[in-house]
Each structure stands twice: as C-alpha cells, then as structure tokens.
Amino acid sequence: MLAHCVAALRCFSMRRGVPAPVGSWAMRSVQSTIALVVMGFVVACGGATPPPAEPDPAEAEAAAPADKSGGEAAEDGGGKDGKREDGAAAEASKQIPTTCEQKDNMCLPPAAFVKRLCSGYYPDVALTLFAKGSPFTRGYLTRDTEAWNASGGSSSNDKLLFDEEVLILYRRVADTGGMVVSGAGGGYDVLRWDGTCASLMTEEVRLHVPPKPKFAPIPWKSLDQKTREAFQADEKVGPLIAERRKECKGATMGAVSAKCEKVDKQMGAALIEYVRSGGALPAPGALP
User: Which portions of the sequence form the region Disordered (predicted)?
Assistant: First the structure.
C-alpha cells in the first residue's frame, strides 16, 4: 500500500515538473495514514466479543457425582425390584403346584418342580398331588415293570404292577437326530402313590382308566406325624389303623401273621380311598 502511495505522489509531481522527495511532507502524510489504519485494526480486534469462558473443572466435578449417583440410584432401584421379583418367583416355585403345563394334551407339573421332586423322597407331597381335585394327568401301567428312576432319586424295590395308577410328571422325547427309528417313542417320568418316581417307556403307560386300578402302598411310617394324625382322626380309617397296630405289633414284613397281612392291606386301601375322596390333609412339612 505504501509503495502505491509513493508512486502516485511521484507521478503527480512529475506532471507538475517537480519530483517529490521521499522525505517530503507527502511521505510523512502517507506514514501518518498507515499509522491510523494500524491503530484502527488494533481497536477493532480489542473491541471484538470475547469467546465464551470454559467451565470451571471444579464445578464440572461437583456436578458429575450427582448425576452418577442419580444413575446408580436408579440402577440400584431396578436391581432391588429385580431381586424382589426373582425372590417371589423362587418362593412360588417351592410351593406344591396347583396349575399345570399342557404338553401332548396332558396336564403336567412344572419341570423345575419335577426335577426337585424326583431327586428326593416326599411321600406327603405325593398324597397332595394325587388328592381329589388335583389337575395332573394320571396314567396306568400296561404291564408289570421294574422300577427305576432316571432322575437319580429314590426308587422303589417293588415292581410297578399292571393297571397301577401313576401321576405323569414329565414327557421324555426320544432324540433320534431327525431319523425315524422303530420303537424310539420316548417315555415318561411318573410318580407312584408311595412317593417314589419311576421312568417308563411310552408303551408301558396308557391314559385309559382300568375298571380296578392298583396302587403302590402308602409308606405309613414315612409320613409326617400331622398326616398320620389326620388319617387317625377319620372314623373309617382310624379303627383300621388301631387294629393294624394291634395285630402287627409294629411289624409289616418278615414273619407276620395272616391277620396282620390282611388288616395291613385293608388299612392301605382305606388310606388311598381317603385321599381320592377328598379327605383333609395338612400341608406337607418338607417340600421339594
């Protein structure tokens, strides 16, 4: 810019016939103009709006824990609700089921309950499951069958008999890898009246009720005291229990009299009839 101004002044002087010296008043005028322009830029920069101030790190740290604590509180609240729901579900699963899972047109107890039931021995629970009004599907043996429990729990030494009534607990499906295999029809886990579980082949069970179903004997000595008291209080069952105690003198196996064997069978049939007809039973003490 200075060069252009000097050139212009020289051109003006030459037209007038007088060259303009560099140190003349014209140069001083140009230098003054340049100074004013520079001062104008400085003033303009100094008067510009300053950039927004950065937040104070201390204030940011103070706000951050509050947000974090709020988030953690929300998460903790959700966690507590989740634990409460899980606890309620776990507690409900420990109760004796009254509703069933439908599978292949059969009413079955929940699988988790069945697993615990067949891993132990719960004769009082068996009576509740077989009681009148229980929704679970009954099955009946098509032949005499050896008792074994695929779940690994207790099993009876007594064979399952033709026409014996059982409670169907679980439907086992044969895994053939997609191949059609003759005779691979799966099977069932069932509950007997004596409280033991048994594993059967599909062809060993039918759902049709026979004219005179049979029953595994109820293990009197293994029942809870409250359950035995409920039986003894019945006007029909109570006398048979007293007579059995008198004739058998506490023994039901080995060298017993014919009278003992007879009254023992009568008492067993009376116990089953009491349960099937809706006789009152206390809540079992031990649960799966």
Answer: 50-96
Structural tokens at position 257: 């009299």
Q: Which residue has the tokens 């009148």?
A: 132
CA atoms within 13 A on the CB side of 177: 0
**Three-state secondary-structure class, residue 103:** strand
Residues 6+ apart with CB under 8 A from 32: none
Beta strands, E only, the chain: 101-103, 106-108, 138-141, 165-172, 187-191, 197-201, 205-206
For 18-39, b where at least 16 C-beta lie within 10 A, e where not — what string? Answer: eebeeeeebbeebeeeeeeeee
3-state secondary structure of 170: strand
- pLDDT tens, per residue, the chain with 288 residues: 444 444 443 434 444 444 444 444 344 443 444 444 334 443 344 444 444 555 554 454 444 444 444 455 445 555 666 666 565 555 655 789 999 999 889 999 999 999 999 999 999 999 999 999 999 999 999 999 999 998 877 788 899 999 999 999 999 887 655 555 555 568 999 999 999 999 999 999 999 999 999 999 999 999 999 999 999 999 999 999 999 999 998 676 667 889 999 999 999 999 999 999 999 999 998 899
Which residues, in sequence order, are CB contacts of 266 under 8 Å at separation 6+?
240, 244
Q: Give dist(CA 6, CA 258) in Å, integer.
A: 147
> Where are the alpha helices (H) located in 94-157, listed in sequence order?
111-118, 123-130
Q: What is the DSSP letter of 202?
A: G
Question: Rounded to an integer, what distance in angstroms lies between the CA atom of residue 176 and that of residue 156?
Answer: 30
Comparing CA positions, the residue from 139, 177, 178, 181 lying closest to residue 160 is 139
Report domain extents, the chain.
Answer: 2-34, 101-276
